[in-house]
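in:
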């Protein structure tokens, strides 16, 4: 099948298929005399594997390791589990960071009058040079970063 058919069958765009081939994530394909790529069912199966791994947020490097392990029938499942658990740890850290960002933005939005006046604590905090050096922590008594806030 050609690249368009492989893309449709795998759920991976033709552009990404070419990219994966260029970085060695999938092997170079057979080409016709006219230079068109020809993909096998095995190639499409590998592309589906890669797409599912990308959907789970694995990096290209992790996917390369997973593809290699998947193709190695002598592999130790521990190696696969280690990659998965490392990725879970990264995802959990990102979730905590996103939750902290959401909490900070909610706090700032609660302290913004949202009216026609120009005063806006959200913009003030974004412009605050000290905020870039420390995480913004809402404080019930003083507002953001322990500074007295005008309420």
């Amino acid at each position: 099948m050609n690249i368009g058919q492989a893309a449709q069958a795998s759920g991976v765009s033709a552009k990404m298929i070419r990219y994966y081939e260029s970085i060695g994530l999938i092997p170079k394909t057979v080409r016709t005399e006219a230079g068109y790529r020809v993909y096998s069912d095995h190639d499409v199966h590998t592309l589906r594997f890669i797409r599912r791994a990308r959907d789970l947020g694995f990096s290209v490097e992790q996917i390369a390791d997973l593809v290699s392990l998947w193709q190695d029938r002598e592999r130790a499942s521990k190696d696969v589990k280690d990659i998965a658990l490392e990725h879970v740890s990264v995802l959990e850290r990102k979730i905590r960071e996103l939750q902290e960002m959401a909490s900070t933005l909610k706090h700032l939005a609660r302290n913004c009058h949202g009216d026609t006046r120009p005063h806006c604590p959200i913009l003030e905090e974004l412009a605050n040079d000290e905020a870039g050096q420390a995480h913004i922590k809402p404080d019930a008594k003083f507002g953001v970063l322990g500074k007295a806030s005008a309420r």
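note: The CA atoms of residues 142 and 148 lie 5 Å apart.
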